[in-house]
Amino acid sequence: MFQENMLQTPGPEFLQASSPCPAWRAPEVIERGRWKISLGQEPVEEFLEEYRRGAFDSASSSRALLAPERTPKLNDFSLSLRQQLLFGDGFARIKQAKTIRLSAPQQRALFLRIGSLMGRVMTEYGQLYPVHDRGIDYKEQAAPVSMTTAETGMHTDSSAVGALPDFVGLLCEEPSLAGGDSLISNALTIYHELRGSCPEIVNLLEGNYIRDVVTPGASRSLETLLLNTFPIYSSGRHGEGSTFRYMRYWIEKGAERAGLPLKPEQCEALNRLDEALNSPENQVKLRLGRGDILLANNRTLAHGRTGYTDRPGHQRQLQRIWVNLGR
Q: Which of 208, 91, 212 is closest to 144 using CA atoms?
């Protein structure tokens, strides 16, 4: 059994690391267990002091962006967490000390505070976006799969060309009765593997793909659709380093709506990618409990979830955050 890690402020050699989010295989990253993080009492008490003073009117209040020096311990924790996502395993599951008891508004405000200390909280879906079943069939209307109980497939968040979260985070407020497990795969590992064995597949994945437009309120005109085009794998397109952006369903729907169906070789490339993303050798499965937080690098890792069943009278409820580092 692994003990939960207490994040420490990284040293200079860690901060100067040049290769973000190194490649890994699932068995080794599970064995290391560095992604298991504990949030101790002191940073939370520091946050609660500011909360009780009225620094947070609500979980979505801009006053959650108060100066970092007001919560120095939580700031150090959040910065170290950011380094873990950039230069460590690329993801972290955070559990709070069992002695910590927070109300739902306090928990959301703390989640938002951590996100704001790591970077800029994006607002395309609101600072916090509730993830729960809304009785929607995403195959019948343009809606995020997060609004359903369906499995999502391995993907990165945001299919909009101009909106790229560096990190995606989930706060579990109510777990499901069954299913709803979080899945994570390292897209960099898969890239290197495919580049060595099937370079023609990688060349196809580095080509441009249209994505359907699903952001609420966005224009769904043909012109907007055709502009919503970018590669699955790219380098230097979004600042330094590699970027992986993938959501197969919206790639297929985008091609269909544009009247430009995918070529057989493109479909085969996507099949090979999905096979690698879902391989047990590449995939980590986690189940979040009430109060747990999962954060992942949205540029180098793919994530997903299994389908789930709600408890009678207790709907699975998560809060999602997107964080951008301002590259």
A: 212
The per-residue DSSP string of 243-309 comes to: EE---HHHHHHHHHHHT-PPPHHHHHHHHHHHHHHT-TTTEEEE-PPTT-EEEEETTTEEEEE--EE
Rounded (5°) CA angle 295-301-303? 70
Taking only the tens place, the pLDDT of each residue in 223-233 is 999 999 999 99
* pLDDT level of residue 67 (50, 70, 90 thresholds): confident
The Cα 327–Cα 310 span in angstroms is: 39
Count Cβ neighbours within 10 Å for each residue of 95-107 and write b for 16 or more, e otherwise: bbeeebebeeebb
Burial 57-79 (b: 16+ CB within 10 A, else e): eebeeeebbeeeeebeebbbbbb
The rounded distance, in Å, linking the Cα atoms of 85 and 310 is: 30
DSSP at 128: S
Q: Give the β-pairing of 36-39 and 5-6.
A: parallel
CA distance 147 to 67: 34
The Cα–Cα gap between 15 and 175 comes to 35
DSSP state of 161: T
β 120-121/317-324 pair status: antiparallel
C-alpha triplet 71, 74, 75: angle, nearest 5°: 80
Could you report the per-residue pLDDT of 69-116, keeping only the tens digit for each?
Answer: 889 999 999 999 999 999 999 999 999 888 888 999 999 999 999 999
Amino acid, single-letter form, for residue 255? A
Residue type for 78, please? S
Positive/negative CA dihedral, 180, 125, 164, 297: negative
